[in-house]
Amino acid sequence: MAPDLTRRWRGVADPRAAFGPAGFDPETAAGHMRDETKEAPLSEPLALFDRNLIRRRLRRAERIGFADFLILRAADDLGERLAAITRAFPVALDLGTATAAAARLLAQRPGTTLVVRAAPTQAGGPHELVADEERLPFAEASLHLVTSLLALQSVNDLPGALVQIRRALKPDGLFIGCLFGGATLTELRQSLAEAESELEGGLSPRVSPFADVRDAGSLLQRAGFALPVTDVEPVTVRYAHPLGLLQDLRAMGLTNALVARRRQPLRRATLMRAMAIYAERFSDPDGKVRASFEMIWLSGWARHDSQQRPLKPGSAKARLADALRTIEASAGEKAG
Questions:
Q1: What DSSP element (H or E) covers 145?
Q2: Based on the structure, what is the number of domains in the chain?
Q3: CA 157 distance to own-chain centroid
Q4: Would you state the pLDDT for residue 213?
Q5: 203 by DSSP, 3-state: which?
């Protein structure tokens, strides 16, 4: 059963204030180890996310008070996953996590001598730097462990980012990441779509798309990881009012940053209709509404000769038919 995280809504006089002056379509590649603090906006025609806008939204969330409850939950899960691995990872990198929660956890792990935090917005510690998840400034085969919590879902080239992570790992190095999956915010997506279609006669992208768990394993394999593993943890957060969810999304820097987003603010009537639909369709008997967050976990190892590998076809020394104590039939022959 998905855990129940209950969040209280801090009431606002005008519901549109939950989104800032630009309405629900509110707010990068940043610098890295070289002296580069800004980068021109992505110009690729297939760019899905406005990376500069994502960075600005995260900075705003930090100013108003970052809502870190999902990152803290992911950090707890990360600790449990790492606890099952007995080997040490002397040099570890936390990539893109919006807070230092994962970096602090890695620093407490026995055998870790250096933890580098590649922050998305600002670097404050001695081993912190601002880096873009799509342009890693780390040398090849320089890291033993890379972690990333709830950041990689907003990169434009996830396969390319995974390739760079794998290249930065030493042989037999480990990557563990968590990102939002396709079922995330499904209630909000449906409510906004119906309200906008009903009142404005059309649809516009209001909620960012997220990765499908069925594709996650193949992405790891395409990136060259060995022993890839993916799994999903559904998390349900409950609110007294749907506007509480919108406030939290703003405080997590997760408001709409699609390149194809509609530039006009969401109309007040459309917003209120969407909130009404949300409350009607996705409320529990106690009146609280549900918000779904699907957390996809990915892990894979940089290849090393010591790792288990599948045998080559035809190399088996015993027949399956003998093990099953049955009669082997040749191709095209019906079993008797």
A1: strand 143-149
A2: 1
A3: 13
A4: 80
A5: coil
Cα distance between residue 299 and residue 303, in whole Å: 13
Residue 32 within a domain: yes
Rounded-to-integer distance, Cα 41 and Cα 149, Å: 24
Is the pLDDT assigned to residue 1 strictly greater than 60? Answer: no
Range of the domain at 168: 20-324
Taking the C-alpha atoms of residue 174 and residue 106, their distance in angstroms, rounded to an integer, is 13
CB hemisphere CA count around 156 (13 angstroms)? 21
Bridge partners of 145, per DSSP, are 92, 174
DSSP state of 19: G
Distance CA 158, CA 165 (A): 11
Name residue 243's amino acid.
L
Q: Which residue type sits at 146? A: V
Distance separating alpha carbons of residues 296 and 180, to the nearest angstrom: 6
Tell whether 156 is covered by a domain: yes
CATH assignment of the domain containing 50: 3.40.50.150
Is residue 247 a part of any domain in this protein? Answer: yes
pLDDT in tens, 275-315: 999 999 999 999 999 999 999 999 999 997 776 665 566 66
Q: How far, CA to CA in Å, does 280 sit from each of 14, 206, 288?
A: 21, 20, 10
> Is the residue at 109 inside a domain?
yes
Q: Evaluate whether 285 touches 48 at the Cβ level (below 8 Å).
A: no
